[in-house]
Amino acid sequence: MDFESQIKQWITNDPMRMKALDLTAQMFKELEVDDWYIAAGFVRNLVWDKLHGAAESVSDDIDVIYYCNEETSVYRDKLIELALAEMASFPWSVKNQARMHIKNQHPAYTSAKDAMSYWPELQTAIGVKLDERGDIVVESVFGLPCLFNLTVNYNPKADESVFMERVASKPWFNEYQNLSLEL
To answer: What is the helix, strand, coil percentage profile of the chain, to 5?
Structure first.
C-alpha cells in the first residue's frame, strides 16, 4: 500500500478536511507564510479511523501549525484563529512553532517540521497542507509506516512523562482497539 497516496485519497474524499485545508491555505497565502500544516489528530485520527473501519471521529480541534520568526505573539495566533472561524466554524487551534520551543524547553525550532520532530508520539508528528497548485502535501517526520502499523511510540526527543500523561489522558486505546503501545 502506498501510504501517502492513501492519505491523500482519504482527505480528498472528506469535504470537511478539504475545506479546512483550503481555508488554511488561503489564510497563509494572504499572510505570505509558506511553512504551515494542519497536523496531529487531523491526519492521525483519520488514518486510525479508516484502519479500524470506524466512523470518522470528530477531533477536539484542528491543529494548525506554522513557522514565522517575524511575528511570534500569541495575539497573532488568536487573530488567525478568529479569521479562520469566521470562514468556517471548526474548532481551530493555531500555534506559531517559532515560539513553542520556549514553552516546551527545547532548542529553538527551525521550521514547522522541526517542531513536529519533538512531539511526544511519533504518530502525531504528521501534517498536511495544500501546495500552490492545490495539491495535498503530506509531511511525516518519522515516516508513514509507524502511523499505519497501529502503534503509539514514544519519541526519544520528548519528555517521557509528557508522553505517558498524553497516553493516559487520550481516548486512543478505547476508540481504537487494535492500537498497541510501544516504548
So the answer is: 45, 15, 35
